[in-house]
Amino acid sequence: MTVRRRISRLPLLLLLLVLAACAPGQDTGGSPVSALTRVAAADRPAAPDLAGDGLDGTAVRLADYRGRVVVLNVWASWCGPCRAEAPELSKAQKELDGEGVRVLGVDTDIERGSGRSFERAHGLVYPSLHDPGSRKMLRLPKGYAPRALPYTLFIDRAGRIAAKYLGPLTAADVRTIVGPLLAEKA
């Protein structure tokens, strides 16, 4: 095999390695892990009060949702799985809003316009906090910052992190995960 042929295959090999390393269900050691990690009620850390401007310019503050179960979804417009997940999260928001569930997005795009275009293209029915470069995500407790996108935290009614999920969710996944949280007393 010539050097030129090896070099032409290098980008494909690198892409496959990145995808394999970031795929849900695998940790860096190659052993299987679940995309969902639940946190026992006694061990739940408080979610920081993430606040800032939404994609539409209005103020968004996580603490405003206290008393509701929050599905905090971290996404970016360039993320393929985020595109597939977005309509599912809108569906979950519509179905579960009356039960005390609120979806809140966190757009990590550098340019606000990219997030607004994504929001319109996918018909998002929930607000998204603009967090260029994931700076606000650095305030999350150790072990809860996103490692890849999409990434979702489930926050109980008391404002504590009850679960984390790496990978795209369906509306059915959201219903399954929030079910036990809705059954808990506030």
List the helices and strands and how they pair.
Layout: H1 3-22, E1 36-38, E2 51-53, E3 59-61, E4 69-75, H2 80-96, E5 101-107, H3 112-121, E6 128-130, E7 151-155, E8 161-166, H4 171-183
Parallel strand pairs: 4-5, 5-6
Antiparallel strand pairs: 1-8, 2-3, 4-7, 7-8
Helix pairs in contact: 2-4
- Topology as H/E string? HEEEEHEHEEEH
Give the class from helix and strand content and strand pairing: alpha/beta
Beta-strand level of the residues, as a percent range? 15-25%
Q: Note the overall shape.
A: globular
The helix content, as a percent range, equals 25-40%
Biggest sheet: strands side by side, in what order? 1-8-7-4-5-6
Q: Residue ranges: pLDDT <50 for 5 or more in a row?
A: 6-33
Count of helix runs: 4
Q: Which whole number gives the mean pLDDT? A: 86
What oligomeric arrangement do these chains adopt? single chain
Largest sheet: 6 strands, mixed
Give me the count of strands: 8
Radius of gyration: 18 Å
Structure in words:
The chain has four helices and eight strands, in the order H-E-E-E-E-H-E-H-E-E-E-H. Helix 2 packs across helix 4. With 186 residues, the protein is α/β, with parallel strands linked by helices. It is globular. The strands form two sheets. A six-stranded mixed beta sheet has the order 1-8-7-4-5-6, with helices on one face. A two-stranded antiparallel sheet has the order 2-3. The longest helix is centred in the first third of the chain and has 20 residues. About 15% of the residues have low confidence.
